[in-house]
Write a structure and sequence with these properties.
- The chain is α+β, with helices and mostly antiparallel strands.
- The protein folds into two domains: 214 residues, Beta-Lactamase (2-Layer Sandwich); 178 residues, no CATH class.
- It is 30% helix and 22% strand.
- The protein contains twelve helices and 20 strands.
- It has a seven-stranded antiparallel β-sheet with strand order 2-1-5-4-3-6-7, sandwiched between helices.
- Helix 1 packs antiparallel against helix 6 and helix 8 runs parallel beside helix 10.
- The longest helix is centred in the middle third of the chain and has 29 residues.
- The radius of gyration is 23 Å and the shape is globular.
- The model has no long low-confidence stretch (mean pLDDT 96).
């Protein structure tokens, strides 16, 4: 029983609210034009109450969802009205990085008599938002102005009609305007669907629905507090490193102290490097997303994800550091790569408190590959899967997205149909998973030939520091980037000619436990399945 809503009614209403968020996501994916959204599903949707608290989210991209509340807070400060839709991507005013464009719409269905009862939010990674290179993820950016069009919260629609001047301004600053217009309309359709469905729920339940907003948040908070209380109190520390910032190759330390006290958990990033010259800086909202994700993984991932999950967790980082930078810091790599390293560092610390619940390290990178034409003909963006770390009782998964991303791949057929690209090879990497009683997952090899002159950008990690095993398990294989067979850096932007082949070898996951303890039958399966070619 939560308030005056009993457990049966709570479960019904919670599932109905979550189904609205999921349906929003389906509308967005079906209506989008770009392969990055319609094929890879690099997007997220969620519902918030009138106070800006998340009440339901679709299970999409972890790095999007923990940061969404910042966007709603920024919009609420601008006195939104029914019929408005705000657009925002500014990392310093509610966004994460510039390609992630967020639409926030007040929910005021007819059944609410004009009152705003909540907000619909959709966030999608747009394949290009301007900037110094196609794809808006330049490896060598030194300030945010080089990364693309920066949008503080601004009305994209008013009284239900698109503000054509704002849309024109936005489309004039991107390389693929028709694709951007279609994807933005898909996001608006997703938010409209939420308004329709919430109206139906209000018609069915009346004010009981608004009471359910509080109830579902309280329910998740109580469950996460119980999970945290079951962990041993104490302070747990860890350090990890980024492999340069795109300007220099110097290691960039991330230091974390996790303190568990009763039913609360605090995370402090004091000691982390100052903000860097390159684009690996990450807004504090991104660091929060990584922490929330790690906490959910070591507690109970089945707890409904909403504001209640985050209430007992606090996150701090000194202003001006890598994880709380000040403008005009470049940040596009922070969302995709630094978030992964924060996740690894927090997991490493939590492994002391919950060793059986924390796997060996996964690939720890999104392996961002961006290929585009400066003339605006096309922009291809993809994050490429790799090895998942072995667990205390199971092998790691092969060729999956790990950590702060949860996207699909771009199917070869779709990629070659949409872009002037040809896939030469797409396969798992034998011997890339770390050995152990339980073996780490395998990485991938993806080779793509560019059929016209283009710009190639790579933002990657784990090319120098391998994913670590746990409890005696061995490290996963390092990743590697090649252009026409030549090894190139982890963070690279290059102009290439037609016929150039770009190859990304993604890292494998670390192993778990002593390799000598691996079952003989499992060793035989490894050989038969081609996972190992020269077992040691």
């Amino acid at each position: 029983m939560t308030g005056d809503i009993d457990s049966v009614e709570l479960e019904i209403l919670r599932n109905q609210l979550e189904s609205v968020a999921e349906e929003m996501g389906q509308v967005l994916i079906r209506g989008a034009y770009s392969p990055n959204i319609k094929e890879r599903r690099d997007c997220s949707t969620a519902l918030f109450d009138a106070e800006g608290r998340m009440i339901a989210q679709a299970e999409h991209i972890p790095v999007h969802l923990g940061a969404m509340p910042e966007a709603v807070t920024a919009v609420r400060e601008l006195d939104p009205k029914p019929g408005d839709t705000f657009v925002v991507n500014d990392p310093f005013e509610g966004g994460t990085h510039l390609p992630d464009v967020t639409l926030v719409s007040p929910l005021a269905p007819d059944e609410a008599d004009g009152e705003i009862v909540g907000y619909a939010v959709s966030r999608a990674h747009h394949a290009d938002v301007g900037g110094m290179s196609p794809g808006s993820m330049p490896a060598g950016a030194r300030e945010i102005y080089q990364e693309g069009l920066r949008l503080p919260p601004v009305r994209l629609a008013e009284d239900g009609d698109i503000c054509e001047d704002v849309m024109a301004l936005l489309l004039a600053n991107v390389r693929t305007p028709d694709e951007r217009r279609a994807d933005l309309r898909a996001q608006m359709a997703a938010n409209d669907r939420a308004d329709e469905r919430v109206g139906e729920l209000l018609g069915d339940h009346g004010d009981r629905l608004l009471s359910a907003f509080d109830a579902v948040i309280d329910y998740s908070r109580e469950r996460i507090e119980a999970e945290l209380a079951a962990l041993p109190d104490g302070e747990y520390r860890a350090t990890d490193f980024l492999e340069g910032d795109g300007v220099t190759d110097d290691d960039v330390p991330i230091e974390v102290a996790v303190e568990i006290e009763g039913s609360s958990l605090s995370v402090d990033f004091s000691g982390t490097a100052d903000q860097v010259a390159g684009n690996l800086n990450a807004p504090l909202s991104v660091a929060k997303s990584a922490v929330y994700f790690a906490v959910r993984c070591v507690t109970n991932p089945e707890i409904p994800p909403n504001q209640g999950c985050y209430a007992p967790v606090s996150v701090s980082a000194p202003e001006g550091c890598l994880l709380n930078p000040t403008p005009p810091a470049a940040v596009v790599g922070g969302n995709v790569e630094t978030s992964q390293r924060v996740t690894d560092a927090v997991f490493r610390a939590l492994a002391e408190a919950a060793p059986e619940r924390v796997p060996a390290e996964g690939q720890g990178t999104m392996n961002n590959l961006i290929i585009g034409s400066r003339a605006g003909g096309f922009t291809y963006y993809e994050t490429i899967a790799g090895g998942f770390g072995a667990r205390a009782t199971k092998d790691g998964m092969d060729a999956v997205q790990v950590g702060m991303t949860n996207t699909l791949n771009t199917p070869v057929e779709a990629l070659e149909a949409e872009y002037p690209l040809r896939v030469e090879r797409y396969a798992v990497r034998p011997d890339s998973g770390g050995a152990g009683e339980f073996r780490g997952g395998l990485g991938l090899e993806r080779s793509v030939t560019v059929e016209e002159d283009a710009t190639v950008s790579l933002l990657t990690e784990r090319r120098r520091h391998a994913p670590q095993g746990r409890n005696g398990g061995e490290s996963g294989a390092l990743g590697e980037n090649r252009i026409d067979g030549e090894r190139v850096g982890a963070k690279t932007t290059r102009e290439v000619e037609a016929g150039t082949t770009v190859t990304v070898l993604t890292p494998g996951g670390g192993g778990y436990g002593d390799p000598q303890e691996r079952d003989d039958a499992a060793r035989e399966r490894d050989r038969e399945d081609g996972k190992v070619t020269d077992e040691t």
